[in-house]
Q: What sequence folds into this?
């Protein structure tokens, strides 16, 4: 658990390091320094279509990598195919700022998604969406035209500063420290970076008739916005990426709420 006193930095560094192996950083979460040869070589490790399985393709940036982790924990019975990369924004392409390896990741993803012989159960899109998300519409339309079920994962809970820094920033009535109520209210106020995008994107998905997973509703709503799990473990690595304890926590919520059972329907 987090240290009650003393230097929190070693603990925070340790928690941050839980993310890399979980997202398979540098292998299935492609980094910007990757070569095309390496991306192609690693592709089979990151999942391939399995006839008869529930095949789900995950596509996007590092937020999609986080999504892979909590889906893998929540649904070990699904065959997840991870096509994600650092900075691989679904709203951009190589001509307007996406790193070159993202093109290889996307081409690899589309080869699976648009395969004439292998029908996926769903394509899950994860992204650090902004209000320009509409530029991802050609991709969404291409997938829908193929008859695929497209699932949009809403933006992550985004904080104005890393949540552990809020302890210093939050106003308190007593010099003895923050009450739980004061901290809860303060965290909710600072967890506002993607709320507007979340609302707009959710409305867009409803208009398109595609399933939407509202991470804010699951993890940071009007009644709660925890930054520590039940064991006191810190659930973030920065202002929006989750630590492994954070992904485990989300996975429990997703499974308990039968999020993907409802999206995929009776099998």
A:
């Amino acid at each position: 658990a987090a240290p009650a006193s003393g230097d929190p930095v070693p603990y925070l560094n340790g928690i941050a390091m839980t993310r890399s192996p979980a997202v398979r950083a540098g292998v299935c979460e492609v980094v910007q320094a990757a070569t095309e040869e390496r991306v192609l070589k690693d592709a089979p490790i990151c999942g391939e279509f399995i006839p008869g399985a529930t095949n789900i393709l995950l596509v996007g940036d590092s937020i999609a990598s986080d999504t892979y982790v909590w889906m893998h924990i929540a649904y070990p019975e699904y065959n997840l195919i991870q096509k994600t990369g650092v900075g691989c924004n679904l709203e951009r392409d190589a001509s307007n700022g996406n790193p070159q390896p993202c093109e290889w990741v996307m081409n690899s993803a589309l080869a699976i998604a648009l395969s004439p012989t292998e029908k996926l159960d769903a394509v899950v899109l994860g992204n650090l969406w902004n209000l320009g998300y509409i530029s991802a519409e050609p991709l969404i339309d291409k997938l829908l035209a193929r008859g695929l079920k497209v699932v949009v994962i809403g933006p992550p809970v985004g904080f104005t500063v890393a949540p552990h820094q809020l302890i210093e920033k939050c106003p308190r009535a007593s010099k003895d420290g923050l009450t739980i109520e004061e901290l809860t209210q303060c965290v909710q106020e600072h967890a506002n970076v993607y709320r507007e995008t979340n609302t707009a994107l959710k409305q867009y998905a409803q208009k398109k008739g595609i399933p939407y997973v509202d991470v804010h509703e699951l993890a940071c709503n009007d009644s709660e916005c925890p930054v520590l799990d039940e064991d006191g473990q810190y659930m973030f690595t920065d202002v929006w990426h989750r630590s492994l304890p954070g992904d485990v926590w989300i996975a429990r919520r997703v499974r308990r709420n039968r999020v993907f059972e409802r999206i995929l329907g009776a099998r």
